[in-house]
Amino acid sequence: MADSTIQIGILGCAEIARKVSRAILLSQTATLYAVGSRSIEKAQKFAADNGFPATGKVYGSYEEVLEDPNVDAVYVPLPTSLHIKWAVLAAQKKKHLLLEKPVALNVEEMDVILAACEANGVQFMDGTMWMHHPRTAKMREFLSDAKQFGELKSVNTCFTFTADQNFLETDIRVKPDLDGLGALGDVGWYCVRGILWAADYELPKSVIALRNPVFNKAGVTISCGASLLWEDGKVGTFHCSFLTNLTMDLTAVGTKGTLHLHDFIIPFEEKKASFISAVECGFKELALGWVPKPSEHTVTTDIPQEALMVREFCKLVGSIKNEGAKPEKKWPTLSRKTTLVLDAVKASIEKGFEAVEIVS
Questions:
Q1: Pairing label, strands 355-357, 206-209
Q2: 132-302+339-357: what fold?
Q3: Chain region(s) in the chain for CATH 3.30.360.10
Q4: Which one of 69, 118, 198, 263 has the fewest CB atoms closer than 10 angstroms to its CB?
C-alpha cells in the first residue's frame, strides 16, 4: 500500500461513524483499515454495512485497534465522557487523533488530551466538518474585506432540531454519565465555533448565559443560549436546542456589510453551498425597497465537507509520517478556545446567569 495512504481505525460504531466512514472512502487519501467495538458482532456488522474492504480488520475491543501497528490514525466518536481515556491512550500509542465534538467535558480534560498529543507528536483535529467546506474560506474572504464588510460588530448563531421522544429519553446526548453537556456540547459547540470563526478566533472577555435554559429530569441541558462580549464592543449571541425545528443560521454584521446563511453546519446540498452578502445597503426613496439588494454566492465542491476534513487531516498526518513535519497547532487551538467558551456558558448557568470571564 502506498505510503501516502493513511490507514484509519475507528473506535466504536456510533451513527456519526457511518458518515465519517463514507468520508474516508471519498477522501481518496485514507483507507478504512480497522474498526473496534465492545462487541465483535457489532464491529463485523458495521464493517459490512459501511464499505470496509475485505482486508479490513475487525476487532472486539478498542484496545486491539490501538495495538495494531498498521493503524496510523484513529477516529473516535465515543461518548464525551470516554474521550479523556481513549484519546489519551490513542496518543500514547502514537495514533493521530480525529476526535468527535465536543472534544471533552471541560477544558481541564481537554488539556490532558492535548498534552498527550503533544508529548507523542501526534496530530489532533476535532470533527467540526463545516470548517473544511470551501464556502467557509470564501466567507472568510468577505469578512476580511474592510472595504466591503468593515469591522465586525455582532454575530448570531442558531442550531436547533426537534428530537423525538425516544431521543430525549435514550440518546447518549441526554445522559449525564455519557454526554453530560447535552445540547450545549452537541449543537451548542457549532454555535460557539461559528461565533469564534466570525470573530477570527478572538476570545470574548466574558460570557453571560441566557435565562430559562431547559433541562431534562436528569439535569442535562436540552435547550440554552448565551451572549459573548468583547472588550471592543463586539457581541455574539447563540441559541441551541433539541426542542425546536431544524435551524442552522449564522449572521455576522459589520459596519459596512452583512453575511447571512441558513445551513452553516450541514449545507442544504452536498456539493454546493451558498451564502448571502449585503454591502452598504440602504432604502429606496420612500423606503420602497433595498438598494443595493443583497447578493447570493454559490460555492461548489467535488466531495462533501466531511471528506475534505478527512483529506486535510490525512495531509497533516502524511506530512508527519513521511516528511518528519511537526503537528499543526491550529486545530487543537481552535478546539480549546471553543471548549473555554462552553465552560463559561455552563458556569454562568450554574452561577445564576452571572457574567463569567474567559481566562485562557
A1: antiparallel
A2: Dihydrodipicolinate Reductase; domain 2 (3.30.360)
A3: 132-302+339-357
A4: 69
Cα–Cα distance measured from residue 196 to residue 132, given in angstroms and rounded to the nearest whole number? 15
**What pTM was computed for the model?**
0.97
Backbone angles phi, psi at 323, to 5 degrees: -120, 0
Cell representation of residue 21: 466512514
| 152 CB-contact burial (10 Å; exposed 0-12 / middle 13-18 / buried 19+) | buried
CA atoms within 13 A on the CB side of 284: 6
Residue 18: name the closest of 42, 51, 67, 65 by CA. Answer: 51
CB 144 within 8 Å of CB 151: no
CATH of domain 6-130+306-328: 3.40.50.720
| Cβ-contact 248, 263 below 8 angstroms | yes
Backbone angles phi, psi at 208, to 5 degrees: -125, 115
Decide if 187 contacts 161 (C-beta within 8 A).
Answer: yes
Q: In this predicted model, what pLDDT tens digit does every residue of 142-158 receive, in sequence order?
A: 999 999 999 999 999 99
Q: List pLDDT tens digits, range 97-116.
A: 999 999 999 999 999 999 99
Cα 98–Cα 103–Cα 106 angle in degrees, nearest 5: 155
